[in-house]
Write a structure and sequence with these properties.
By secondary structure, the chain is of the alpha+beta class. 44% of the residues lie in helices and 17% in strands. The strands form two sheets. Strands 1-8-3-6-9 form a five-stranded antiparallel β-sheet, covered by helices on one side. Strands 2-7-4-5 form a four-stranded antiparallel β-sheet, with no helix packed on it. A hairpin with a 5-residue loop joins strand 4 and strand 5. The longest helix has 23 residues, at 160-182. It comes from Sphingobium wenxiniae (strain DSM 21828 / CGMCC 1.7748 / JZ-1).
Amino acid sequence: MIDLTSGDWTALLRTPDLRLVGVEFGRLRFDRPFRLAKPDPSRANFYLVRKGGAWFRAQGGKAIFLPTGSVVGVEGRSHEWLDSSQLHPAERGARHGNADFAGALPVEIFTGSIDRSVAVLQRLPWGSIVIPARAEPYASLIAKAVEMLECLDEGSSSERGVARRLAEIIMLQIVGYARERLLKANLAFGSIQHDEYLLRAMTTFLATPGKRWTVADLAASAGLSRAAFAQRFRCAFGAPPMATINRFRLLQASEILADSSASISVIAEQIGFGSSAALVRAFKRQFGQTPGCWRRSCRLENAPLQTR
């Protein structure tokens, strides 16, 4: 899940390298009901749930449950970690079908932070990214980097450089996951990576997918005429703009179905598909199964969705 509501995602997609300073890391352990607020916006934070499961909520967002292996990157936004006793029952049920997560204690969370002035997400003023445990290879690579960090002597000056490099690996994996999710579905990412016009249009769409986008709207966000934009888009993606936009919408729908209990009509409105009937037809045509079947299979098997 990626917060796409604000920030310069074009910059993220073009991030070539990073060098971090001021790396700090530590561990959190909770054996009883808890609520931990992180109000400092001056640092970029990353977390790995090592044991149990906890709820995470960023400023202005909804609480989401993160099981063992989940990773969070958040910057410039106050946030909090809490257990299920701190949530209203309706909030738990709305997100996870009334599942009971009270047994997730004890909880262990690895924490890391860096000075936001040199953070890779510094152009995303409200950026937050959640990487599920099933997102490979990103989740497992981050877990391995954390294991190495935990073996370091925090007081050793000779190992501070190693800690910085491991933190860079973690942040690069977070960026890599974001890039993959932002431009997924076997689209021609390479052909637009340095195309400011198409990047501007696509990141504007991804920030507000629920809007009733037209080719003219996308062209205006790119700063091109409708004809020039359509031709440029087709050359890059091999498909017309709206066909590609709808493919993105269906991928977003598949993620929402997997991570929430939102109704089909709510999802259709959220991603700009018009109606639940239209979403069901398009989803079945794209993925070979209805949204309801996909949601059930995802919960039973936790398997990635294969597109046709």
